[in-house]
Amino acid sequence: MKIIDLHHWVDEPSKAIEIQKSLASRIILEGKSNVRLTTIAGVDVSGVSSVGPVWAAAVVIKLPQFDIVERSFAVSTVNLPYVPGLLSFRELPVILEALKKLQTVPDLIICDGQGLAHPRFFGLACHLGLWVNLPTVGCAKSRLIGKAPDPNINAGDYELLEYKDRTVGLILRTRTRVKPVYVSPGHLIDVDGSRRVIMSCCNGRRLPEPTRLAHLAVNSYRKGKLK
Predict the structure, then answer these.
(1) If we measure between CA atoms, which residue out of 33, 34, 38, 8 comes closest to residue 23?
(2) Is 212 within 8 Å of 46 (Cβ atoms)?
(3) Which residue, 138, 125, 105, 146, is CA-closest to 1?
(4) How many CB atoms are located within 10 Å of the residue 182 CB?
(5) 186 vs 203: CA distance, rounded Å
(6) Least crowded by CB within 10 Å, which of 59, 73, 130, 159?
(7) Which of 33-42, 78-87, 132-141 has maximum average pLDDT?
(8) Domain 16-26+36-222 carries which CATH code?
(9) Model-level pTM?
(10) How does pLDDT run across 127-164, given as a tens digit for each residue?
(11) Beta 136-140 vs 108-111: how paired, if at all?
């Protein structure tokens, strides 16, 4: 997979914030939402300490069968401790290394994190989208910013997430009577398109299958069970 050389990586939070602010205006929140997606990748990262080694997995699945097409892995070292709003500076370098190894270029990538629903409108999915120039969606298990009521209890119910007079994503119930997820567009897709992508990928589960499989794969890789 081709990766764009977007910028150099920094370890200082203040410099990372400057990069986020400078790139946020390049995000495109539209795309060909009526195009049928056939291959979707999920990415996830595993680490055991604040700084040190981190592992990443990228898993490509084919819809509608949910068959695994390809998996790739990478390991790297992070020097920036976790800072809310700066997750991409910890996780994205190793994610990109895993994506580089893919022979399949997916139609879209889902991240276990935020997209536009971010203090500077530039979460992990946005950052990744610019590096790979592909549609990206963030699907997180918890809220970072924004206000919205809880959606109704049925699968497919949702409420729009608002922040600073912008709609930045939505709270989506992917399974009936199960905790919702927090979905936001990353790049080359809009809010409603992001909702439809996540619903098409959940396969009866709370979390989308691409990131669920990436989570399982990266932890097996970290433990030496997969190569």
Answers:
(1) 8
(2) no
(3) 105
(4) 24
(5) 22
(6) 159
(7) 132-141
(8) 3.30.2170.10
(9) 0.96
(10) 999 999 999 999 999 999 999 999 999 999 999 999 99
(11) parallel
C-alpha to C-alpha distance for 99 and 109, rounded to whole angstroms: 10
Tokens representing 203?
A: 């396969």
Q: Which residues contact 41 (CB under 8 A, 6 or more apart)?
A: 58, 59, 60, 61, 99, 102, 104, 106, 108, 109, 110, 210
When computed from its CA atoms, the radius of gyration of the chain, rounded to whole angstroms, is: 16
Per residue in 158-215, pLDDT tens? 999 999 999 999 999 999 999 999 999 999 999 999 999 999 999 999 999 999 999 9
With cut-offs at 50, 70 and 90, classify the pLDDT of residue 16. very high
Dist CA 86 CA 124 (whole Å): 8
Query: Structure tokens of 4?
Result: 């764009």
Helix intervals (H) in 4-111:
13-23, 87-100
Domain boundaries, given as residue ranges, for the chain: 16-26+36-222
pLDDT band for 35, please (50, 70, 90 cuts). low
Contacts of 197 by beta carbon, 8 Å cutoff, 6+ apart: 37, 40, 108, 110, 137, 189, 208
